[in-house]
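Structure ticket #2291
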Amino acid sequence: MRKLSCVAPAWWDYTTLDDEIVADAAKLTAEDLPGLSRDGFEVRIYDTIEEFYLAEALEYIDAWRQSKPDAPVGICGPIGPTEQLPLVAKLVNELGIDLGKLGAHFWGMDEWVIGGEAVAPDHPLSFAKADMELCFDRIDAKLAMPAANIHFPVDTADYSASFDSVRCAVMQGGQGEVKHWAFNDPPKREGEWKDAPPPPAEYRKLGTRVVDLHPMTVMQNARTSGGGNVALVPTQALTVGPVETWKAGRVSIWHAGMHDNPFGQRLTALMISKKLPDSAVPMSLLAEHPDVRFSYFRGGIGTCDVEMH
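Resolution: structure written out below.
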């Protein structure tokens, strides 16, 4: 039986991994990371934060420019990071890209759940609210995509089905402290998964759904979005699942150094590079996706050296 999590013993997470994997990840330097690239997995490093977020915003533009009215294309994007979103609107406006004419689409990848229901768009932590205020409401009306082309995972069946009628060129995201993309958190340590986490093939059967959030995820979102007020953060969310993720042409993960720590940024790259998928580390399951790209801001990579603060 694998060891218990040292953070949340009732859950699976990366602290249940073999010590050798952990040690190998901690040894990696910023200079080592590009060497983890292989066929199907690319590592890029940006030297300035400006070019980092500009490159992230340009993924939206590149995806939408592939779209045609009779062959629509979209991008699935995160809240975390968000700094790219105003840049997306600025680029659309300055370049005069008519998103409506192109038939472009967008998927928001997750949303908070309180009392069994998705939060309303006026909730202060609403992801839909952030997407609209930071990006889509800033696009000139004459260039905007129709509201019907903006998808949020409130109606899970319709949301999931839209990935079959519209090609998702890129699923973009960040990486949380529990090593998730979207809110694909590790599962609880219970039932048939009490002694071992679900096999990767089993986890990959999960589609858009309501999830219980690992305590690490709640703490992280309190830190990054709630001013540290843990009680403010919901403990459930709606999330795009592996089923939809594997319909995306590319999965593009952006590490600015604010949502996960230096160790975590190394661990998942190592596991994807070495093809070591483990559902206790959900991001590592991308080792089985045919096209994954990790982009790092050099100033956010940090070190895994032990130092007191």
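Closing remark: The chain has one domain: 41-296.
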